[in-house]
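The methods section describes the discrete structure representation at length, but only in general terms. An entry of this sort, consisting of the sequence and the corresponding backbone structure tokens, reads as follows.
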Amino acid sequence: MFLMTELEFIPVEDIKVKKGMTVNDLLITMKDAGGFTARKLAEATDIAETMISEKGCLRVLSFPACIMATGTRGVIVDMVRNGMVDLIITTCGTLDHDISRTYASYYKGDFMMDDADLRAHEVSRLGNILVPDSCYGIVLEDNLLPMFDEIFAESKDMTTHKIIDEVGKRMVHEDSLLHQCHLKNVPIVVPGITDGSFGSQLWTYYQMHRELRIDLFGDEQMLAEMTMEAEKMGAIIIGGGISKHHVIWWSQFREGLDYCVYLTTAQEFDGSLSGAPIREAVSWGKVKSDASKMTVEGDATITLPLIYAGLADRLL
């Protein structure tokens, strides 16, 4: 909270858009403008830059699966490719969409399409993205089950991050998140591994191989070691749910995140985790009270590409 004795009067500047200016130029002028979410977005980019640049800082990225169905997947892949991420915590659908889009295509649709008509044509709608059945479940089954035969040939007791890494090893495609994470040694942890088609394929494999075991405690052990050994810890958290909570849950055991950028469209009034701003996490010890932190309200398919574009100008 601001006290009048601490108040510093800084003039609001007008945004000056010029021909040929970069996204980073725009973010800088948005910060000076001091207007609503524009300033938050600019300051979030500054926090992300510091977090990514600081040696000894564990950089975590968490997000729900939905944005992997969009072109924002390319931003996430590039963040991994360019060394901005040490650890990903996400939901099972992230694996589904990455694998599906590596071997097939999703299509542009509209939020107002007739959903009953789409189902009659065996097409699922994810917002304004169209996912034909032939590009989803069938693709996953055709590609994953043969991989599982290879992966589980020697051991049928593995962590989720190891299974995912082994799949990524076999997906030799530059635009695949799983493949880039394998190349860059970035673990992907999915706490809710059975909540999606990838998990369903594991369950299907289990029907024929009853000795199969998923070592969830092994995932948690790795997270404990990574968080406790880090000199500092920062996170870019997109959306809420289990992926968000798993990041801040482990951060509390090291007295909280040092850096945190939260991109969300959820509201605070219903008490949900997704709607909870970063300042609420401070009360739980999940984010340090003196952490560099910013909650940015807005669609992550807009805000994340803008932040990344600024980071690319500054760091690449």
Remarks:
- The chain has a mean pLDDT of 95.
